[in-house]
User: Which sequence fits this backbone?
C-alpha cells in the first residue's frame, strides 16, 4: 500500500508537470459550454452568416435539455475519446522510452501497484473532466432550455458514462504497457471505433457490451433503460476492464524482466 501511495503521488506530479491536470478538463469544459450555447443561438448564427434571401426563416426543432446532453455525449464520443487516448497513450510506453521505467523496474516494486497507480490517476482525471464538462453544460441548460432532466436522472447518467470512460482509460493504459506510444494510440482508437461500427451494424443483437453504455445512460434522461440490458452491459464492461488490468500488470512485469536482462 505504501508503494501504491508513493507511485500515485508520482503520477499526480507527472500530470501536473505535463499540464494534463489543466488541459484535459479544459477541453471537456469547453465543449460542455459550447454545445448548449451553439444550439440556443444557432438561428441567429445562421441568419448572420447564411446570406439567405430576405424573409427566409429557420424552422429548427425545439431542443430540450436531454437533447443537448445527447448531442454533447456525441462530441465526447469522438473528440473526448481522442483527448483521453492522446493524454494517456504514453503513460507506460513513454517511461520505457525515456528510461524512467527501467529505473523503476530494477527496484523491488510491486508491478500491480505500478500499473494501478497510473490507472487510478488516469481514471480520476478522466471522470473529473467528464463531470466538469457536463456540469458546465448543466449551468447553461437550466437557463436556456425549458425541459431539464432531474438531478437523479443526470446523476445515474453520469455514473454510467463514468463506467464507459473507465473502460476506455484501461484499454489505453494496457495498450501503452504492451506497445510503443504510437502503436498504443492506434490500437486503442482502432478497437474503440471498430467496436462502435460493429455496434452500429449489429447493435440490436449485441445488447451487452461497453459500447452500449452511452445509449443506456442517455435513456435515464428520456425515460429509463432496460434494467437487464444495463446490468448485463455493466457486468461485461467490468469483466473486460478487470481482464485488461490483469493484462496490463502482466505486461509491466514482462517489461521489467526484459529490462533486467
Assistant:
Amino acid at each position: 500500500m505504501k508503494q501504491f501511495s508513493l507511485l500515485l503521488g508520482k503520477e499526480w506530479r507527472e500530470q501536473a508537470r505535463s499540464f494534463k491536470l489543466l488541459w484535459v478538463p479544459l477541453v471537456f469544459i469547453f465543449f460542455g459550454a459550447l454545445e448548449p450555447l451553439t444550439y440556443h443561438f444557432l438561428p441567429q448564427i445562421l441568419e448572420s452568416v447564411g446570406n439567405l434571401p430576405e424573409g427566409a426563416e429557420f424552422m429548427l426543432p425545439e431542443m430540450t435539455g436531454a437533447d443537448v446532453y445527447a448531442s454533447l455525449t456525441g462530441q465526447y464520443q469522438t473528440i473526448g475519446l481522442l483527448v483521453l487516448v492522446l493524454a494517456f497513450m504514453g503513460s507506460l510506453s513513454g517511461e520505457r522510452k525515456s528510461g524512467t521505467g527501467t529505473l523503476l523496474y530494477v527496484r523491488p516494486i510491486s508491478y500491480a501497484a505500478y500499473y494501478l497507480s497510473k490507472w487510478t490517476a488516469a481514471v480520476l482525471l478522466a471522470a473529473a473532466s467528464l463531470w466538469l464538462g457536463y456540469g458546465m453544460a448543466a449551468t447553461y441548460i437550466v437557463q436556456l432550455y425549458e425541459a431539464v432532466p432531474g438531478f437523479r436522472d443526470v446523476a445515474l447518467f453520469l455514473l454510467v458514462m463514468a463506467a464507459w470512460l473507465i473502460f476506455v482509460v484501461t484499454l489505453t493504459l494496457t495498450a501503452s504497457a504492451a506497445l510503443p506510444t504510437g502503436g498504443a494510440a492506434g490500437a486503442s482508437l482502432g478497437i474503440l471505433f471498430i467496436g462502435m461500427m460493429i455496434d452500429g451494424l449489429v447493435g440490436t443483437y449485441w445488447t451487452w457490451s461497453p459500447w452500449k453504455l452511452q445509449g443506456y445512460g442517455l435513456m435515464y434522461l428520456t425515460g429509463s433503460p432496460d434494467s437487464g440490458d444495463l446490468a448485463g452491459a455493466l457486468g461485461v464492461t467490468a469483466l473486460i476492464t478487470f481482464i485488461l488490468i490483469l493484462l496490463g500488470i502482466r505486461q509491466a512485469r514482462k517489461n521489467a524482466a526484459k529490462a533486467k536482462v
Observations:
- The longest helix spans residues 111-144.
